[in-house]
Amino acid sequence: MKKIIYFLFAIFCTGIFSISYGAIKITPTILELDTTSARGNYLTSSFSVQGGENETIRFKVYPEYFKISQTGTMEILEQAEASDNLIKNARFVPNEFTLQNGNIQKVRLTIADVNSLPDGESRMVLFLEDVAAKELFLPSGNRNVQTKLIVKTRVGIPVYVDKGHFVKCAKIEQFDIKQSEKDINLALKILSEGNSKVRCSGKAQIIRNKKLIGEYPIKNNVAGANSFLITNEQIPLNDISENGDYTLRLIINYKDEKGRLKSLIKENKFTVDNKQSI
């Protein structure tokens, strides 16, 4: 008698750009709206879902409330009565559909009664989850053991609405470096002081005697409204060839509520004394 080992595999994704996971493509993968474009007491938007050419899959659509965690991830919450919970204002069609032969399904979203929303950001995530899980049998080195992989797909599309007087404002509260022989570990805390999230990107520069030695991208991240973001970055030291004192300059960019690019700049000193002379 064969023994079957089960594994449950779920795909969960959120993002900014058009992406595909397996045979599923979502465009766009995030919806960001504001009431300045509203012609009445409502907002409308949509996203498209496409499956594989030789695949049939049925999805159900349902919303959940979330907040952005202090590490920039999505934290699903049960606080249905939260004032910034967008679910109570959301209407979407269809709430269940089947994808066949690579056809595209558009899901239409209406945010009703936007006047009832608080000033600032409200949010939710719309999940697309396949109704029937797929079963895949995997080869095993043991003929008496069979491995079954149960695949269930769940894709999340975050929805944000900014209403009324909303503010996107950030500052660097903490910028510490811990140095090793090969790299610098950068510990960063960014405060989001407004009532709407801040999307951050940027770069770190190594400078000596006003000369740029190396420049490295900082990963994109999000600081939640009225919250903060804690992140760590590793900056390599392989561009440094001489011992001495250096400056690590951090440049963080974000856009404010009017779409203007803002830059936060901080510097920290460090010393390299482990380079072997030639």
Structure, explained:
The protein is an all-beta fold and 278 residues long. The protein contains no helices and 20 strands. The chain has strands at residues 3-11, 19-21, 24-27, 31-34, 42-50, 56-68, 74-77, 90-93, 96-100, 104-112, 120-130, 134-138, 145-163, 170-179, 183-192, 198-208, 211-223, 227-236, 244-255, 261-272. The strands form 4 sheets. Strands 1, 4, 6, 7, 9, 11, 12 and 13 form an 8-stranded mixed beta sheet that branches. Strands 2-3-5-10-8 form a 5-stranded antiparallel beta sheet, with no helix packed on it. β6 (56-68) and β7 form a beta hairpin. It is flat, with a radius of gyration of 24 Å. The N and C termini lie far apart (68 Å). Residues 1-21 have low confidence and may be disordered.
Poorly predicted sequence stretches spanning 5 or more consecutive residues: 1-21
Strand-pairing-aware structural class = mainly beta
Envelope shape: flat
Tally the beta strands: 20
Indicate the proportion of strand residues. over 45%
Radius of gyration over alpha carbons? 24 Å
Instruction: State the end-to-end CA separation.
Output: 68 Å
Largest sheet: 8 strands, mixed
How confident is the prediction overall: mean pLDDT? 87
- The helix fraction, in percent, is under 10%
- Helices, by number, come to 0
What series of H and E elements makes up the topology? Answer: EEEEEEEEEEEEEEEEEEEE
